[in-house]
Structures are given as structure tokens and as C-alpha cells.
Amino acid sequence: MTEMCYYEVLEVNKDCSSAELKKAYRKLAMKYHPDRNPDDKEAEDKFKIVNEAYQVLSDEEKRSIYDRYGKAGLEGQGGFGGGGFGGATNMDDIMDIFNSMFGGAGGGFGHQSRRDNSQKYTLDFEIELNLEFHEAVFGCEKKIDIRYKTPCNECKGTGAKDGKLETCDYCKGQGQILMRQGAMQFAQTCPKCQGQGQTVKESCNSCKGKGYHEKEDTVTVNIPAGVDSGNRLRAQGYGNESKNGQRGDLYITFVVKEDENFIRNGNDIYIKVPVFFTQAILGETISIPALDGELELELKQSTKDKEQFVFDDEGVADVHSGRKGRLIAQIQMILPKKINDEQRELLEKLQESYGVESSPHKSTFDSAFDRVKSWFKS
């Protein structure tokens, strides 16, 4: 049987950075997490292998061993264990990711959760919101249609017909299973009952065993100026509903579209300024677009290609401090694609007027030509 490659599991290249690795893990863990895929055995299995892969590749020593010897080289090294988290070296890292995904809820992985064991879903949930470039830069108000979970009344949120549950035969009602890694022992949420300690014998007809129904709602959020892709905003009280009627929180992660001209890097804005070669040689004052209108750019005589001109406080306002970044204009030299006879004659006259300065390659390569000639004389 072909062994699955951990890099392929996380959908990353072998030379990926730790930040790229964490981002890939976060995405896949969210996709296959049991809370988001109830009663889905395939998603559960994928969730386990994703955790196993990240547990190895996020540890530099284990990753080095894996790169050289494969999975076999990790046997006896504490590399993995039964699809669990395998060791304590990067447990904090993994829990940080789960906390950020589920709004402080560990999802049953050892931290305090906003979900009791009898509830089939977390109260907090996360969505992505696409923003136009200018909406992120200047801030805006958005109305967002959402669907949230509310407990099924007929089964009291259990997913079982008439609310009748039986003790889980996998964890014997404990809700957790013990995992051993060398001398260490730690608890992991039972994958069969998802930490409830009980399982459904017969599914509820009303909710088809899910334990919840979905309702629609609309939330209006004021998005502050300066947000960027990956930033999150909490909408308190717009999450899923618990059995006592309390609602959790909605976490909104922003995805900002790129602009045709402006390129954002943090709070700085870059813009390419096409300049014809004669403008660069002679020097000229030109107008360029800026976030708040336009700016005057004074080209120096003999401005170079890719030369940068920096305008302070013309970038994006920091979402926390309000302090603005820079606008950086980078020159993009434009040369003529075609010239006519008259233009050629003028250019040749211009070149001749510079004398020796117009042929810099000659003085630069004279010594090189002499050395090359000497190689063939001997």
C-alpha cells in the first residue's frame, strides 16, 4: 500500500515555511472538524490524518527525520500516535489554532469550551466575508445574511428519537479516550460520541439525527477602516443557539480583493508609475492617483527604472492606532517600441553629443577584451 505523504495531506510544498504550514493546517482542520461534519466517518478520518501530518511537520526535528527517512524514521521517536496529537511539543500551537477557529472553544480538545457535552455543535462559528479593496481601506457597513443552529425541540437537541441516548461503547461513557505517547499520557475527545459519552440508538425524525435545525438571520456590522485579509471581527450574540436560548458569537474573517493599480503591503500602498524615457531623462512633475485623491510626483533628472518615491501618511490607516502608512510610487520605465527615420536621426545626434559618455561599455570591457585575446596567444 502506498504511504500517504504528509506534505500532500496538508496540500503544501516540501519547502513551505512554518507560517504556510500553519495556514494550510488551519484551513483543513476547519474543513474536516467533527463539529462541522457530524456523523461523517470520511471527514473524521481525514481530520485525524491532517492532525497527524501537522504534528510531525510543525516540529523541526521530526520534520527533518521525516524528510530523510519518511514515516518509518519516526517510529519510536514520538512522531505520531493513533491519529491523535502525538506529543506535547506543539500542543500549544495546535490549541492556539483551534481557539482562533472556534472563538476560544477548544472543540473538545482539552481547553474550556463554550459547548457542554450534551450539545452537538459549538455556539461560536466563523464565516468569510469578501470585501472590495476600498471597503477595507475606508471601512463600511455591511448587512450579512447568515444561517445559525438552534436545538431541535422534539429530541431536546440530542439527535435521538424522544431524546433517548445509550452509553457509548467506545469510551464507556467517559467522553474521552486515553492516548499514550512514550511516558506521557493524555486525553483525547472520543471520536465516536464526540465527547458526549452517549450515542444515538434511533435518530430523531424531525432533525434526522442532527440535533438541531437552522434558522436565518441578518447581522449589520460596521467594518473599521484598515482591515486586511485574515483580520477577524466578532459579532456578539449572532452565533448558534444553546439549549437555554443563549446565542454564541459570530466571527467574521475578511478576504480583501486586490485593486487594479494599488498593491497593499500591511499599511503601505505601492503603485507603479509608467514614465516615458524622455520624462525620466528631462525630469517632470506628474500627477499620480492616491487613496485620498491625487499627488504631485516630481521626477528628478535622470530618474532610474524601478526608482521609488515615498509619500508618508498617504497609505492605509492602521486598524488599531489609526496611524497611516506610506504610499510608495515605483517608476516603470517605458521605452518606444518603434521609431521612424526622423526619430532615429535625432537620437543618433543626441548620442553623439554625449561623446565618450554615450559608450560606457567600451571602457568597461576594454580590459576584458585584452584578457580574452591573451588567452589564445599562449
The helix/strand order is: HHHHHEHEEEEEEEEEEHEEEEHH
CATH class of the domain at 1-101: Mainly Alpha
Q: Helical element count?
A: 9
Q: Average pLDDT across residues?
A: 82
Description:
The protein has helices at 6-9, 18-32, 41-57, 60-69, 91-101, 133-138, 277-282, 341-353, 360-375; strands at 125-131, 140-151, 165-167, 176-181, 184-189, 198-200, 212-223, 232-235, 250-256, 262-265, 268-276, 285-290, 293-298, 308-311, 327-334. Among the domains are: 1-101, Helix Hairpins, CATH 1.10.287.110; 262-334, HSP40/DNAj peptide-binding domain. It is elongated. Helices cover 26% and strands 26% of the residues. A hairpin with a 2-residue loop joins strand 4 (176-181) and strand 5. With 378 residues, the chain is α+β, with helices and mostly antiparallel strands. The longest helix is centred in the first third of the chain and has 17 residues, at 41-57. The strands form 6 sheets. Strands 10-11-15-14 form a 4-stranded mixed beta sheet. It has a 3-stranded mixed beta sheet with strand order 1-9-8. A two-stranded antiparallel sheet has the order 2-7. Mean pLDDT is 82; it is low at 78-92 and 99-115.
Brief summary:
With 378 residues, the chain is α+β, with helices and mostly antiparallel strands. It has 9 helices and 15 strands. Helix content is 26%, strand content 26%.
Write the layout of secondary structure elements.
Layout: H1 6-9, H2 18-32, H3 41-57, H4 60-69, H5 91-101, E1 125-131, H6 133-138, E2 140-151, E3 165-167, E4 176-181, E5 184-189, E6 198-200, E7 212-223, E8 232-235, E9 250-256, E10 262-265, E11 268-276, H7 277-282, E12 285-290, E13 293-298, E14 308-311, E15 327-334, H8 341-353, H9 360-375
Parallel strand pairs: 1-9, 11-15
Antiparallel strand pairs: 2-7, 3-6, 4-5, 8-9, 10-11, 12-13, 14-15
